[in-house]
Amino acid sequence: xxxxxxxxxxxxxxxxxxxxxxxxxxxxxxxxxxxxxxxxxxxxxxxxxxxxxxxxxxxxxxxxxxxxxxxxxxxxxxxxxxxxxxxxxxxxxxxxxxxxxxxxxxxxxxxxxxxxxxxxxxxxxxxxxxxxxxxxxxxxxx
Amino acid sequence: xxxxxxxxxxxxxxxxxxxxxxxxxxxxxxxxxxxxxxxxxxxxxxxxxxxxxxxxxxxxxxxxxxxxxxxxxxxxxxxxxxxxxxxxxxxxxxxxxxxxxxxxxxxxxxxxxxxxxxxxxxxxxxxxxxxxxxxxxxxxxx
Lengths: 142, 142
Hints:
homodimer, alpha+beta, globular
């Protein structure tokens, strides 16, 4: 098992297909942004992948940005292939993500997850995340 | 009153001081990132300002990033000078932010705000934001 950062130079149609298939397990109906956009150097996003036998079986993304209140990272798209769950892959992806976040000097890492997603919440709180006394609001434009 | 995007080429020590004073009203003890970092071209953040008589009296920031699930914008640092509240400046800043977010093709705009911040919540919901059934978690690294 390899936990590593995926870069644009490694992107192949095969990797794009693997990620598309994996992500579809999470949201079968949602549209997906292509990896070429995500890995573009203008997009300040770290793409952490877990590979087993050269197949991507897990992802966790860390988007980074600087605002007045600090240098922030936002976690998105934490997915582990259904046939590889229970092996601690989610934890390993998140540990790598936190390590990279510290390395680049982030002040804070944020994430949001559904109130009903008990295993995910247990993972995040065990890694030191705290529930804020705030609500998360969204507005869909597309 | 002018609602406009602040760019790096316009940044002066005077503007930095105005924003620092304004932001201190919100968080007197919190450290602040310098505007030079926020306005840097590597940082995909739109800085919306409200100026009255050439003085910055309000800000709203929109950080943008692409992940598999979409092209997202996150709202931060919405602040209006205490002596200029009740003039609809927060709404005008947010309207400009939404307009710019649509223009660059965002799929979704996100924000979080304290459960106790009733006027802010009223503003955001009146602009079309919906409370998600999710919790927001953070981990401070600094």
